[in-house]
Design brief:
Distance between the termini: 28 Å
Mean pLDDT: 91
Structural class: mainly alpha
Number of helices: 5
Largest sheet: 2 strands, antiparallel
Number of strands: 4
Strand order of the largest sheet: 1-2
Number of domains: 2
Radius of gyration: 22 Å
Order of helices and strands: EEHEHEHHH
Length: about 130
């Protein structure tokens, strides 16, 4: 996936590597091929999760091409953190209670109507409650 400076996203290539071993060397070679095809001066960063093999590949590419920044995907980091947080009993209980409130408003047409009217009256951006 490529993202341009104007935030447009493009799928550059789709390959099936399911029968290959995803070693750092293999991933480095595949990333390097793409960097060379696109042009090293047209790439600012490589972003991925932080599995050891891909982290090593990002590092190798950054060492070979100093203009390419080695970045971990922040969305993936937040996902991992949130998974850990909801394992904590307090957070799990809180999430369960929030979902109970949302379910109440979803099954009660009168409560849902009152909620929608209050959202409009207070000029809130949310249209309705959502389950997590």
């Amino acid at each position: 996936m490529l993202i341009t400076s104007s935030r447009e996203e493009y799928l550059y290539s789709l390959q099936n590597y399911s029968s290959d071993h995803h070693t750092a060397e293999f991933l480095t070679d595949k990333i390097d091929e793409i960097v060379k095809k696109i042009g090293v001066n047209k790439i600012g960063a490589i972003v991925s999760d932080n599995a050891s093999n891909i982290a090593a590949a990002r590092e190798a590419i950054s060492l070979k091409y100093p203009n390419i920044i080695n970045l971990r995907c922040i969305a993936h980091c937040f996902n991992l953190i949130s998974q850990d947080i909801i394992k904590i009993p307090f957070a799990k209980k809180l999430l369960h209670r929030c979902n109970t409130v949302v379910t109440f408003f979803k099954v009660s047409h009168i409560a849902a109507s009152l909620l929608r009217n209050m959202i409009k009256k207070k000029k809130l951006k949310a249209e309705h409650l959502k389950l997590i």
